[in-house]
Amino acid sequence: MAITSAICNSFKAEVLQALHNFTASSGNTFKLALYTSSATLNKSTTAYSTSNEISNTSGSAYTAGGKALTSVTPLYHLILRVVTLQMHLLHRLLLQLMVV
């Protein structure tokens, strides 16, 4: 099979359950791993796998196991603005549906 570009369903569910800490100073470590085109990765992938991960045999700077991403603390006031805007748009949509 091939790699399908997607955010894993398990990760989306865990984010909604607040299981991950994105705070820069004390949060979880998130890593990015590189794979060959022979890897089978898709939205159903639930965990890191070494199967078909790129190795450092070609002299590249990549180390198997993934490279840690730089963490930035989320700006909650910006998230609140987005949610408020979405609620406003939903309210307008509902009002339009009631008029029809």
End-to-end distance, in Å?
Answer: 48 Å
What structural category do the secondary elements indicate? mainly alpha
Largest sheet: 2 strands, antiparallel
- Strand arrangement across the biggest beta sheet: 1-2
Uncertain residue ranges? none
Number of helices: 2
Q: How much is the radius of gyration in Å?
A: 19 Å
DSSP helix fraction: 25-40%
Question: Mind explaining what this structure looks like?
Answer:
With 100 residues, the chain is mostly helical. The protein has a domain of 66 residues. Helices cover 32% and strands 4% of the residues. It contains 2 helices and 2 strands; from the N terminus they run αββα. It has a two-stranded antiparallel sheet with strand order 1-2. It is elongated, with a radius of gyration of 19 Å.
Q: Which features characterize this protein?
A:
single chain, 100 residues, mainly alpha, two-stranded antiparallel sheet, 2 helices, elongated
Summarize the model shown.
The protein has 100 residues and is mainly alpha-helical. It contains 2 helices and 2 strands; from the N terminus they run αββα.
Secondary structure layout plus pairing:
Blueprint: H1 9-16, E1 31-32, E2 67-68, H2 76-99
Antiparallel strand pairs: 1-2
